[in-house]
Each structure stands twice: as C-alpha cells, then as structure tokens.
Design goal:
It contains 7 helices and 9 strands. It is of the alpha/beta class. Helix 4 packs parallel to helix 5. It starts with a helix and ends with a strand.
C-alpha cells in the first residue's frame, strides 16, 4: 500500500506540473508568435536593404570614371584596386591578387565567353616607361601559373617601342597612358579596347575526349 500511495502521489505531481507548463505555454504563445513576426520582418528588411545596396554599388560601378590625374595621385595598391574596379565595371568577376609572390598578376578576372584575364599593373611617375622584361615575365606566368587566356600590362606611363612590339607579337596586351584614358575615363571596356578574342571551346576528338584548345 505504501508503494502504491507514493506512485499515486508522483503521478499527481507530474500531472499538475505538466498542466502548469501547458497553461504557461498557452499564455506565452502570442508573445512567441509576435517575436517570430518581428524577427521575420527584420530579416526581410535586411535582405531588401542588402539588395538595394548591392544594386546601388553595381550601378555606381557601371558609371565609374577615373581621370588620369586621379590615377596619377594613387599609390601602387590604390592603382591595382582601381584597375580591379574598372574590370568589374566592364562585367568581369575580378579580384586584386597583387602582393609578394603574385607571379606577375595584380588583378585576375573572369568573363564568359572571354575566359580568364591576368592584369599586371605598372604604376609609375608620369613620364616613366615600361620595358620588355615586364612583357617576358607576364607571358611566362600568365598561362602556367594562372591558367589565363589573356595577359595585359597596364601603366599610367608609357611603354618602350620594343615592349609594345614584343607584346603585339606574343599576345601580351598593353595599355599605356592614352589607352588608359579611353578605358578609365571615357568608359570603353578593356576587352573592346584591346579586341580580346573569345576563348576557344575545347576540341572534341573522335574518341569523345575534350582537349584544350
């Protein structure tokens, strides 16, 4: 009888505790629903705000224009970031990668169907010239190190005659001060300015194996 009484008492206590919890939950559910609604509205507002900010940033980049005097006033890193922003304006998914061990790539971008581009930035004081050695270096690393379809050297100065001729012969684009003005200030897209060709699709052999073009 003693054990039965204890079991009955425990059952009653548990039942009463459960009833109290249910009562409290029933009283609290409107508050919980309200909190849920507030959180949902807040998240929706953040998404809208983020979308508007992204759209505003994209529209701002689409209108981006940088004068030569503004570029001349930059330092090396600012110049690299400016070239990245100009590529983004032109539709490339671009990022700055310049720094120690960059293997002759300061900015890398991708744009279908043009493929992958490597940009080597050569910021210089007005009147400075870029020589052929830069062209050799970029040509040597663009494909093997960065898997690039296009390699371009950009300076706010000029190139030696040999550097331009070597670049034209070996497929390294060059953007001197005059071309930079067309690109940065006048708003002409880099790939249009240089006439960059679209990446060739992989060839397909009779066995159906794709080979890089």
């Amino acid at each position: 009888m003693g054990a039965a009484a204890v079991a009955l008492a425990l059952t009653v206590a548990v039942t009463q505790a459960a009833e109290r919890l249910l009562t409290r939950a029933a009283a609290a559910w409107p508050v919980l629903v309200l909190i849920g609604l507030v959180v949902a509205v807040g998240l929706a507002c953040l998404r809208v705000r983020g979308s508007r900010r992204h759209r505003a940033d994209s529209e701002g980049l689409a209108r981006l224009r940088i004068t030569l005097s503004e570029l001349d006033a930059m330092d090396d890193q600012q110049f690299e970031y400016a070239l990245r922003d100009l590529l983004v304006r032109d539709g490339w998914a671009a990022r700055r990668v310049g720094g120690g061990g960059d293997q002759a790539a300061d900015v890398i971008g991708v744009l279908i169907p043009l493929g992958r581009i490597v940009v080597q930035a050569k910021y210089t004081r007005v009147g400075g010239k870029v020589g052929s050695s830069v062209m050799y270096e970029v040509k040597g690393t663009a494909g093997p190190a960065h898997r690039a379809d296009h390699a371009v050297v950009v300076t706010n100065g000029s190139f030696t005659r040999d550097a331009m001729a070597w670049g034209d012969r070996h497929g390294v684009g060059w953007v001197d001060r005059d071309r930079l003005n067309h690109w940065a200030h006048e708003g002409k897209a880099l790939h249009e300015l240089l006439g960059l060709p679209a990446r060739r699709a992989p060839a397909v052999t009779s066995s159906g194996i794709g080979l890089s073009a």
